[in-house]
Amino acid sequence: MTLLEDRNLRAHDLWCQALQLSDRDEQIQLLEKSVELDAYRPNVWLALAKCYLRNHRYDDCKRALDMGLLADEHDKFLLQEKLMLELLCGNHPGAIAAIDRMPVPDNPRERNELTRLKVSILIDSSRYDEAIALLRKLTLRSHPSMKDLISLGLLAEQTGDIPLATQAFTRLRNMNPKDKIYARRMEDFFLRHP
Q1: Contacting residues for 41 by C-beta, under 8 A, at least 6 apart
Q2: Is the pTM for the entire model greater than 0.90?
């Protein structure tokens, strides 16, 4: 066995031991030793980041996630954890950057949910034009989500784009004219903007 193989094996053993412990501080110690031996294991960096996060050590968590992403920049689980940390810390630009680095899901539903999350973050960041552009993409389909049309209509109205809001709400009304839940929102809009 080579020296490198021995280090990798010891790093793996430490990671396995850490996962079996309930004491977070002991877990952190073992995981830190593991990454010292082998820094190219994203799963160990992820485990370490989660331990830091549970101990409210946010800066250490961020560093661990960044180190894991150096080992594998497309690791879905590291990117998801990075997104959650950025949201938890109120770092909207960091959260958007994490979303942008994520691989595009093959499943259209997952892809749309990720886009909706980005829209929500953009709105929280007062980046309305970008949010509207993404909502427009979501509503270009032949059968868009009613919630997406409402979001587009409300955001367009809020930003003063009444023609776009009218277009979104008219399309919504034409999709399902008897829907009582959405009818009230559309009725309010058309009363405000005859």
Answers
A1: 11, 12, 15, 34, 35, 71
A2: no
